[in-house]
Amino acid sequence: MKAAQAIASNTPVWVWYDGWWPAVVLEPCSGTDEPMLVVKLAHGVSVPTSVAELELRDLALLGSDRPVERRRDPKVRT
Predict the structure, then answer these.
(1) Which residues contact 67 (CB under 8 A, 6 or more apart)?
(2) Domains contained in the chain, CATH given
(3) Is the Cα torsion angle 57, 71, 4, 2 positive or negative in sign?
(4) Nearest CA-CA partner of 56 in 31, 39, 72
(5) Distance of alpha carbon 17 from alpha carbon 75, whole angstroms
(6) Three-state DSSP class for 53?
(7) 70 pLDDT more than 80
(8) CA-CA 20 to 30 A from 16: which of 22, 39, 66, 76?
């Protein structure tokens, strides 16, 4: 994904959080060490997220452009 400054407000994206969620970019999130954006999920909740957790979304494809599920790392027992 591109740097946070290069992604415009109102850009449709997929957000990874144990699955891909449809969202829209609201604004850059300042005061962090990594590039982050505030996004509004389809169900109305706004959350900050890392740019690394985003993929662009094409609204015309009606969700068929959902990215492939990310590999889950196994839990490490200590």
Answers:
(1) 14, 16, 20, 55
(2) 4-58 (2.30.30.60)
(3) negative
(4) 39
(5) 16
(6) helix
(7) no
(8) 76
Beta strands in 17-71 (DSSP E): 20-28, 36-41, 46-50, 54-56
48 Cβ contact partners less than 8 Å away, ≥ 6 residues apart? 29, 32, 36, 37, 38, 39
pLDDT single digits (tens) 15-27: 998 899 999 999 9
Residue 14 contacts residue 55 (beta carbons within 8 Å): yes
Residue type, 6: A
Q: Which residue has the tokens 């992604």?
A: 7
In terms of pLDDT, which residue wins out, 76 or 59? 59
State the Cα–Cα distance between residues 48 and 25, nearest whole angstrom. 10
**pTM of the predicted model, to two decimals?**
0.79
